[in-house]
Amino acid sequence: MGSRRGDLPPGPPTVPVLGNAHIFPTKQAHVQFTQWAKVYGDIYSLMVGDQVMVILSNPRLVQELLDHRTATTSDRPPVHILDVIAHGLVVPMMRYGELWKDFRRVLREILSREACARHLPIQRAEATQLMYDLLKQPENFFTDIRRYSSSTILSAVFGLRCPRYSDSYISRFFTVQRDLSFIVGPGAIPPVDIFPVLKYVPERWASWKTMAKNIKKVHRKLWYDLLDVIEKRVVEGRRQGCLMEDIWDNQEQFNFNREKMAYIGSNMLEAGSDTTSMFLQSFIAFITAHPEVQRRAQAEIDDVIGPSRSPSFEDWDSLPYLQAIVKEVHRLRPITPSLIPHRTTADERLDQYMIPKGSTVFVNVWGINYDPAAFDEPEKFDPDRFLRSEFGTRDGADDTGRRHDLVFGCGRRFCPGMEFATNSLRINTMNLLWAFNFGLAKDDAGKPIPIDLNDMTDGLLLTQNPYKCVVEPRSQRHADIIRTNYAAARGLFAQFEQELTPDEKKYVEEW
Ligand code: HEM
Question: Keywords assigned by UniProt (predicted)?
């Protein structure tokens, strides 16, 4: 146990029993994955006990294995704690099989391009509130963005918006997110997936089991409460067109019982909320730290849109420099820098190596995006690289298998929410640059406080840790248009505010 077979991809030396488990990175894994790629190559392996982990750091290899051989590379490694907490109903970590196919079929249908087009009005209206919030409380931009992304998903999925960061559903959701990230994070519970025998330690010696039970209770209560909102609305004839009402209406056709319905809603919320806000938080950090890029993007926006109206969705195609900025932020801050691992269900050969059935495969997006053989000065924030070449790569770079949407995953596990997410990113990046100047905050002595772009979160999802910046409207005219648009959006919001508490309603009236 722990040793590496001769036909596997190379990797760091192993020790008996543990293999490489003792050096498997528990923090910023993508950074270590990238360092090892420099030593062992674009395909290498790690042994964790007797489990094989393969790390791919080259787009051609990713395409060959995960995009082309999807029948045998679409499973996920087991995560016992999610079986306990969520009965295995968390789609991003769900094992490949009939249950996953049932969920995926529904997600494909309700997150299709046409379905997402139906939700554009509320996405736009929520984005208007984001601008309005930034006008009124610019110092809270970090949480304003998080409110935006969660409220947008809650609105589209449950027809239920949260006008405030502290509103009940949204804050219950954030608690659930925090608990879940903690318990699936490194070191929170013993390594039960590597040593399954640990699952059978009685609860009196395994406090993590009590913790998991408590988290499960809070989770299920939230998801079932949200489902009750939908049921009540449908029964009382107050439908408002959200995604969960579609699922409710088609539950037989979808083969969905109450539990599956409760969890599919939660899946969209969990997978779609922080991913979107984290991108926008990184985006603002980069444009604040690079004022010359910000000014040039604003000049482009002014040419196309001007100060007399706010951006419309259709403007996106006329803004090549902004498109290049968004690509560059995706390159430098991929939200999931090692994606979510896939697992093989048959032996596969890749180049000269064997990848045995049951291997866990990580895509080292970070290493691919920071590869000096592909990108000139890969650490540099340089949106122009995407104007010079399709993928931002240097002359003569090998682009086999390279694609813009790798940050959204591979093969059959490709993110089903990409369309929804992309719409949000387009609307908000246009709005933010049209409406505001983002500048460095100043300390008490009036000295600018630089943003440390290397101060990033640790965990499955990657963004900047909270930072300070000054957010100011670009002119009185811009501010007036934001206020007018927010007032106009109130009509649409009303359909999503049926279930607000009296306190929340009062807030909306006074805000
Ligand atoms: C910037 C925003 C987003 C990014 C970067 C992102 C990225 C990803 C990635 C990398 C995966 C894993 C793909 C793989 O395993 O190969 C994934 C899976 C998933 N995403 Fe997204 N996502 C975003 C937004 C969303 C949104 C808005 C939703 C839903 C409304 C969503 C729903 C899901 C679901 C349900 C899965 C699991 C798919 C499966 O395992 O079959 N995501 N996403």
Answer: Heme, Iron, Membrane, Metal-binding, Monooxygenase, Oxidoreductase, Transmembrane, Transmembrane helix
